[in-house]
Specification:
CATH superfamily of the largest domain: P-loop containing nucleotide triphosphate hydrolases
CATH architecture of the largest domain: 3-Layer(aba) Sandwich
Oligomer: single chain
CATH topology of the largest domain: Rossmann fold
Strand content: 5-15%
Shape: globular
Distance between the termini: 77 Å
Helix content: 40-55%
Mean pLDDT: 79
CATH class of the largest domain: Alpha Beta
Order of helices and strands: HEEHEHEHEHEHHEHH
Amino acid sequence: MADHPARTLSDLLPRLERLMGRIETLVSAYTEGRDGRTGQTRRTGESDDVFAGSIAFRWGKRGGKGCLEPIVHPDLVDLVDLFGLDREIGILDRNTRQFVRGMPANNVLIWGERGTGKSSVVKGLLARFAGEGLRMIEVRRQDLMDLPEIVDLLWDRPERFILFCDDLSFMEDESDYLELKALLEGSLSARPDNVLVYATSNRRHLMPEKLADNTLRFSPDDDEIHPQETVEEKVSLSDRFGLSIGFYRITQGTYFRIVRHLADQRSLDMDAGTLRQESLRWLQ
């Protein structure tokens, strides 16, 4: 004889409630970094190591708390494809090579106009040096306040980490840059040897500049008593990077050489005149 539906449902409800409670406990433990069975805090290096099997990460938020999220399909770039950037790539390659091999290396600011290859070069460095232990963590501007927490997670790790801050800039009234400045120049807390910062920006000094900054003229709308100190504060952040590399807009001739290089690389069967015409049309 079949069970009565109401009786079956009444039997299931307590079980479902217990199951949901168990799931909530596991989720809470995961977001807080605890073992769901023992309640103990998980330590870096245990079997659930977030660094296992991934070379790229982003700093995200779960339950209002910061955490590392593996990037399953990172956008890796072959530096060979970045035509016309030999000098810039050479400088960054040397600095990164020294870093992964435990030699002195610099934090890097890569600045220049959009579309000049700044971010692509950084991604290419990860592709080139991942086999030597390089890992990359993308940190968004709004998460810079979490830098001390991020650095604590990386302390004593065998890998070498680049904190990648892409398209970085600040407005005059923002203070998010202070944690970045502290990491670059040092504070009471020591900085681990296995962490560097690579940042890209459209601004050479990361913060907006005015013509008056160069002339130090007094403005009746400005109550600054010591304007020189304000100017120094604006440029001090970019000065904390050991390397500052400018990426400039390419000439039309370089653009055509890039197009020809990519066409040859992909065995594209097209005469030079047609290729030139089509590449110009793509720019419009």
